[in-house]
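Q: Given only this backbone (475 positions), what sequence would you predict?
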């Protein structure tokens, strides 16, 4: 155990969706602590420092106000990684940990190269005693690797360099990150060094009550994060599976959800059927769990969790297929308006968004997609679909039947729907609840369809405007 005084300066490595909002809230709630967020990506840092708070790199309701209050006072964004590490009492590792795409564990295990690189940077640049906090979602026992890297530097620099490693997983959900951070269900701190645990608990203690700050050992903390995400994702696959059965039997998944959600053992949250879960965490964390289970010889457990991801993939493919089937078995050369590309509402994040695979499948079938999203730009869609949009003039002339599928960005829902055979809603943006279906139907080619994969649109109004309507989970 090591003695430490109160925390005066925090450095966070990684200015992404987790690091940025988390540090902004810590700085806002702890004005006596200097918080420096560093990133190798100079463009991202410049965006965090942008005068116009509407142009921060992460869109998150309420984030602009929090950053506006703390930035320049005790919240700083910089690319000077080593200086920030050297000046910090506590360092959060909040770098990306995507699924490995090659080598051992490809497609399942997490790629830990960014964690390793940042741990090495900390080992080299830190001064005195430093508490290192794992914030990124990591496979169980990653702290072991971080500790090993740090212990190589321990005792160097005249014997003054020492480290404690803690796990403090993030449970914020995008779109509600500020509320989740300001009023968390719980804060989880895993570690062995009680002084370090209490130092971190005292940071959160500035605004979170002590009974909500849970202390565990390192491995329980790491595993709790994977387990929480696996349980949440499992609920979505469960309700999506039931939605398909509702469609086949004449039941309505919203009625079923309400009926089961009133059982307090089940609870009413996370029962919305949809196009499948997306986001940077769910699939990655389940695959991580699957990899760990296989590693420890627990094949039954591995395949149980693997089926949650399998059902999610199936749901996305099912939606693309049913669009094609309802449009007389072909979408070749047909225009389809895609409403929403982000993986959920109130974020500009598209990582693992169901829209990506559904749009790719429809493009593969030859469709001409007109994509509109209030927060996702053309550049991101180009990266995600692996192809640029076609020139709007070409699109206006229409795609020859049997031609290759394409996409164009659209400025508004009505513009996207112009000449389209179908509108497909993939993200539950609030504005899609109040669309003027009369105006939309008037610009579409008849017979026209509304496919509502989020069940947010006013189906009665769409039917009254003459559209055929499919809603997820409605028999
Ligand atoms: C998730 C966890 O909720 C959070 O605790 C963790 O820290 C990170 O991963 P996030 O991915 O940001 O957060 O969003 P979340 O609200 O969990 O939604 C994930 C996906 O599930 C989205 O694609 C969403 O649309 C979908 N979803 C969610 C449903 O389809 N139905 C639901 O009822 C809830
Ligand atoms: P998350 O959703 O977990 O926050 P992001 O990909 O949005 O993930 O953010 C992770 C950030 O970490 C990226 O901006 C990336 O540039 C940054 N990063 C990765 N490795 C390092 C490193 N060694 N030093 C500084 N920043 C890093």
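A: Predicted residues:
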């Amino acid at each position: 155990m090591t003695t430490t005084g109160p925390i005066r300066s925090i450095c966070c490595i990684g200015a992404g969706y987790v690091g940025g909002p988390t540090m902004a809230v810590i700085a806002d709630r702890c004005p006596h602590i200097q918080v420096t967020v560093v990133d190798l990506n100079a463009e991202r840092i410049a965006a965090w420092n942008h005068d116009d708070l509407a142009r921060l790199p992460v869109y998150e309701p309420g984030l602009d106000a929090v950053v506006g209050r703390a930035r320049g006072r005790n919240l700083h964004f910089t690319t000077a990684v080593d200086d920030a590490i050297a000046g910090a009492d506590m360092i959060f590792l909040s770098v990306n940990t995507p699924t490995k795409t090659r080598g051992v564990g490809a497609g399942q295990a997490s790629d830990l190269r960014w964690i390793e690189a940042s741990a090495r940077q900390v080992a080299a640049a830190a001064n005195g005693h430093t508490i290192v906090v794992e914030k990124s979602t990591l496979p169980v026992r990653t702290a072991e690797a971080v500790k090993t890297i740090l212990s190589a530097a321990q005792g160097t620099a005249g014997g003054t360099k020492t480290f404690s490693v803690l796990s403090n997983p993030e449970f914020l959900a995008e779109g509600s990150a500020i509320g989740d951070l300001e009023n968390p269900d719980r804060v989880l701190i895993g570690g062995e060094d009680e002084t370090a645990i209490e130092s971190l608990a005292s940071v959160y203690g500035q605004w979170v009550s002590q009974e909500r700050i849970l202390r565990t050992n390192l491995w329980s903390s790491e595993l709790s994060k994977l387990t929480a995400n696996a349980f949440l994702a499992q609920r979505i696959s469960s309700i999506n599976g039931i939605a398909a059965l509702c469609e086949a039997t004449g039941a309505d998944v919203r009625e079923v959800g309400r009926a089961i959600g009133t059982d307090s053992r089940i609870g009413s949250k996370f029962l919305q059927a949809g196009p499948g879960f997306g986001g940077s965490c769910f699939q990655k964390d389940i695959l991580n769990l699957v990899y760990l289970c296989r590693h420890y010889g627990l094949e039954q457990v591995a395949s149980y969790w693997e089926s949650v991801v399998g059902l999610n993939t199936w749901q996305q493919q099912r939606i693309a297929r049913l669009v094609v089937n309802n449009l007389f078995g072909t979408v070749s050369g047909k225009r389809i308006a895609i409403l929403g590309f982000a993986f959920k509402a109130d974020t500009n994040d598209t990582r693992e968004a169901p829209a990506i695979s559904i749009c790719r499948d429809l493009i593969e079938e030859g469709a001409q997609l007109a994509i509109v999203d209030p927060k996702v730009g053309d550049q991101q869609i180009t990266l995600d679909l692996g192809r640029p949009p076609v020139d709007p003039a070409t699109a206006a002339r229409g795609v020859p039947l049997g031609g290759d599928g394409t996409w164009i960005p659209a400025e508004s829902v009505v513009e996207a729907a112009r000449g389209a055979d179908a509108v497909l809603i993939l993200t539950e943006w609030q504005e899609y609840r109040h669309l003027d279906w009369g105006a939309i139907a008037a610009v579409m080619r008849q017979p026209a369809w509304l496919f509502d994969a989020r069940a947010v649109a006013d189906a009665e109004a769409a039917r009254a405007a003459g559209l055929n309507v499919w809603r997820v989970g409605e028999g």
